[in-house]
Design brief:
mainly beta, 336 residues, 29 strands, 9-stranded parallel beta sheet
Length: 336
């Protein structure tokens, strides 16, 4: 199996990994034959690579573990320069009377919900430029007057098993050179523009987006701009009204074994329009399309091979709807 216990102690407490019913190991890139899934306790994809002086993502490992129930407690530990594993219990309302209530998350932090009821309400988590080694996990993040999570110039960030909905702007924005990002097993629902990527000056970012559920949204599912390597696999897109996966502004995107159900423009590489804008490149393989319409752009050649950067496994595409609807979003076993 690809999952390796590289972080001990607190990782066992926070991971909540399922027992796998697979008969044996599956080679990297090979499709599984079972819908029973074991999610890892460390990130897959570009968040796991050794780059920019950071080897993978460990979050607050090595620091103290604290449990928070108020905005003031979360702010104190998340913005500290010390490493922390921060367990969020219950609902924390970030509203403070400002137009942009937020927590500026510092480096070397794990922010993890305890069970399925932990949530961040009315504000956003905001890793800023130079912030690195951050885990945001097992939280419902909802009803912000801006974004749910914004990353500007951060690197080595893992967002996992979260649920986003009800935001006035984006659910999750990766901007201004944010790179070495993995977003996995999350739910993005009932949003105009759930996941925006770009707003950069060069095509350099690298990110992996896998096993996520995009449902009842309009566009940015995700919209990726200025991404050198965007690897999307085993995602489930359902009831998308405007556009699914979108490679814009020079982005090179690989889309594998994803399931598109009632989706307009499942994967699109055309120019978004406007001064200085351009299209991208999409390579699509192994996907299933059900009641889709519009663009399914796919280049004949893969613009990059993800396996040259990390190992990963593909679940069978036909298993994706059941798999994702069952296991995406916050889990009762994580964070306890």
């Amino acid at each position: 199996m690809r999952t390796k216990l590289s972080i001990t102690g607190w990782a066992c407490l926070l991971s909540g990994c399922m027992a796998s019913a697979l008969a044996g190991p599956v080679s990297p890139g090979e499709s599984r034959t079972s819908t029973v899934r074991q999610w890892p306790e460390v990130p897959e994809g570009f968040a796991s690579v050794n780059a920019m002086g950071q080897n993978g993502v460990t979050g607050g490992a090595g620091g103290k573990t604290v449990t928070v129930t108020t905005r003031e407690e979360l702010k104190r530990f998340a913005e500290s320069t010390d490493p922390y594993v921060i367990r969020v219990r219950g609902s924390i309302d970030l509203k403070d009377g400002s137009r942009d209530p937020r927590i500026d998350v510092a480096s070397d932090k794990t922010i993890v919900g305890v069970g399925k009821t932990a949530e961040i309400v009315g504000g956003r988590l905001y890793p800023l430029a130079g912030v690195h080694n951050v885990i945001i996990r097992n939280l419902t993040i909802r009803n912000s007057p801006t974004d749910g999570v914004t990353m500007d110039g951060a690197h080595h960030v893992w967002v996992d098993h979260c649920r986003f909905h009800g935001h006035a702007d984006g659910c999750l924005d990766s901007r201004k050179g944010t790179t070495c990002l993995t977003v996995s097993w999350c739910i993005f629902s009932d949003s105009y523009k759930p996941f925006g990527i770009g707003w950069d000056t060069e095509v350099a970012a690298q990110m992996t987006i896998h096993h996520n559920w995009f449902r009842n949204n309009q566009y940015r599912n995700p919209r990726a701009g200025q991404v050198l390597r965007a690897h999307l696999y085993n995602n489930y897109l359902k009831d998308i009204r405007v556009r699914g996966n979108w490679a814009a502004d020079g982005t090179r995107m690989v889309v594998e074994n994803s399931f598109f159900d009632n989706v307009a423009n499942p994967h699109d590489s055309h120019s978004p329009g406007g001064k200085g804008s351009s299209g991208g490149v999409v390579f699509a393989s192994g996907n299933i399309y059900h009641k889709t319409r519009g663009r399914k752009d796919s280049h004949k050649n893969m613009p990059f091979n993800p396996r040259e950067f990390y190992e990963y496994e593909l679940d069978r595409t036909e298993a994706v709807p059941d798999l994702i609807s069952e296991y995406a979003g916050p889990r009762e076993s994580i964070g306890r």
